[in-house]
Amino acid sequence: MPSLFIMLPTLDEEKALSDVYNRIPFSKLNKMGYDCRVVIVDGGSNDDTLEIARGFDCEIIEQWGEGKGAGIRQAFKLFLEKKDDVLVMLDSDGTYHPEEIPNLILAIPENGIAIGDRLHGNLASDAMTSKNWIGNQLLTWLAVVLHGKAISDLCSGFWAFSRKAIEDLKLNSMRFEIEAEMYTSCAYNNIPITHVPISYSKRVGKAKLGSVKDGTSIARKLIIRRIFPVPHEERE
User: Fold this and answer.
1) Runs of H (alpha helix) within the chain
2) Its pTM surpasses 0.85
3) Long-range contacts of 60-69 (CB under 8 A, 24+ apart)
4) What is the pLDDT of residue 236?
């Protein structure tokens, strides 16, 4: 039976985490042949997120570095150590629909990655501010111009990975620029990408991404990876 590693990054998600976890379609995934492992990667929550997480049948990573990128890279390392077959990650803020996990898994190309596309899916009218929509469009355009690989929604937080894809990713991001760096690594390591229209709802709780500073960090990462395609520690 192939093994599925479901990663839920968290940072003060006490209001949404239970609903997200309880909506994971374990029965359907089991019928598809997957043995499921849920791993919650916490970035230093100050609310009751960890207390809630300990009530689930899951593993918890209290990450070694601050920032989403650091936590995701730590979870990738655990995934490879556990020798699991497929990894799915989605944010734990209630914006993504766990019921759609099977759709992404089925869409993973051979040795590749499937990315949830909010902009061509069911985007709730109150789910994304106009500033965030415009910013995401600009960053997605910049990514394609600089790196030449098609992508529809650069800042999506809903991805599904084959094991080979994670083995081939070269990353050093610490914060919210991690998705942009995963995209650039796909471009330079010839990792296949497919796009899956998904549903996207208004987040539960306070937004953590969307400032000009965050957008600038993502753009900077795209530019740096155009000049230096491989992170420093990965170069020979």
Assistant:
1) 17-22, 26-31, 49-53, 68-82, 101-107, 130-147, 163-168, 178-188, 212-227
2) yes
3) 65/174, 66/174, 67/43, 67/173, 67/174, 67/175, 67/176, 68/9, 68/11, 68/43, 68/175, 68/176, 68/178, 69/171, 69/173, 69/174, 69/175, 69/176, 69/177, 69/178, 69/181
4) 38
CB 46 within 8 Å of CB 12: yes
CA distances from 112 to 3, 150, 227 (A): 17, 14, 24
Residue ranges per structural domain of the chain: 3-231
Rg (CA), the chain: 17
Beta bridge partners of 122: 199
Nearest 5 degrees, angle CA 120-CA 125-CA 129?
Answer: 90
CATH topology for 3-231 is: Spore Coat Polysaccharide Biosynthesis Protein SpsA; Chain A (3.90.550)
213 Cβ neighbours under 8 A, 6+ residues apart: none
Q: pLDDT band for 67, please (50, 70, 90 cuts).
A: confident
Contact 194/109 with Cβ under 8 angstroms?
Answer: yes
DSSP letters along 192-215, please? -EEEEEEEE-PPSS---S-SHHHH
Token look-up 């499921």 returns 36
Q: What is the pLDDT of residues 166-192, one digit of tens each?
A: 999 999 998 889 999 999 999 999 999
Question: In this structure, what DSSP letter does residue 59 have?
Answer: E
